[in-house]
Write a structure and sequence with these properties.
single chain
């Protein structure tokens, strides 16, 4: 449940922060008349995201078992790719997200109501579609016949909405860059489990082979129906008897991705610093030449 709570919290908070930035900017600049089209765009984005999730959930039920597994495995891999891109993007742009949104909103205000609706829809809709896909894949991977995974997601989303409101009211001040770094790292671990489960789906769909080649089997020590087995599955999508291919893919994704994600940003000299250094060296060279002359 914790893994799904983290997904709902992380993804929902991104969307909540975007809405807070848009609304706060319009209020502070005296453009309350533009709030209605912004909220309309947010509402459309939420509706499209919910509809997308419903299509994934109910549409797949009409398929054969092999087709369900093929669809589930494929979309799980797509979801991992999107979430991986998202956590890296947010870690890189968290400090400048407000300025970026302000620029887009200024351009939309000049263009009119329709542009405001589209701007809000695109800003929130991207997060909503990514959330719907990854939540569906994660809930499907950690489903144990109960409503706990979905309850975790909903609880995370509600927490994100509450935090977004508190941000808007100025009651909460935290380092967003650090927050997204830590939650992003944990989300990479969750994504690794979703990826491994997606590979297992593709093996069950007979799209990939080696389904019978088990890397290990600790079902006796970690029963899937035990409280700690359920906890491991809910947090890390842990499987007590994974295949060799699952473990290989899990390790090949998790180790380099987590290492790159946790590496310090700008550990080397930036392009701007290099350019400034080159300019200074050129100026010093020109000054030396003038002195010699």
């Amino acid at each position: 449940m914790f893994g799904n709570y983290l997904i709902g919290l992380r993804e929902g908070l991104e969307a909540s922060l975007i809405v807070c930035v848009l609304v706060a900017y319009l209020v502070k600049t005296g453009r309350r008349d533009a709030l209605r089209p912004v909220w309309a765009g947010v509402g459309v984005a939420v509706g499209v995201s919910l509809a997308f999730g419903a299509v994934l959930e109910f549409g797949s039920r009409e398929l054969t078992f092999e087709a369900q597994e093929l669809l589930g495995g494929s979309l799980s891999i797509v979801a991992v790719v999107l979430v991986t891109w998202m956590v890296f993007w947010m870690r890189r742009t968290a400090r400048h997200l407000k300025d970026e949104l302000h620029g887009k909103l200024d351009a939309a205000l000049v263009m009119g109501t329709g542009a405001l609706v589209v701007t809000a829809f695109l800003a929130v809709g991207r997060e909503g579609l990514e959330t719907a896909l990854f939540v569906w894949a994660s809930v499907r991977a950690s489903s144990d016949g109960t409503a706990a995974p979905l309850a975790g997601v909903l609880l995370g989303l509600l927490t994100a909405v509450l935090l977004g409101w508190l941000f808007y009211r100025g009651a909460v001040r935290i380092d967003l860059a650090r927050f997204f770094t830590w939650t992003g790292g944990m989300l990479v671990v969750v994504a690794a489990g979703v990826l491994a489960y997606g590979v297992h789906d593709l093996q069950e769909a007979r799209f990939l082979g080696c389904l019978a080649d088990k890397a290990f089997d600790v079902s006796a020590a970690v029963p899937p129906d035990s409280w700690y087995g359920t906890l491991l599955k809910g947090v890390f999508n842990f499987q007590p008897n994974p295949t060799v291919l699952q473990v290989t893919v899990w390790a090949l994704y998790l180790v380099p991705t987590l290492a790159l994600f946790l590496a310090p940003i700008g550990s080397g000299p930036s392009a701007r610093v290099k350019k400034q250094k080159a300019t200074d060296e050129q100026a010093e060279g020109g000054a030396s030449a003038g002195t010699t002359a």
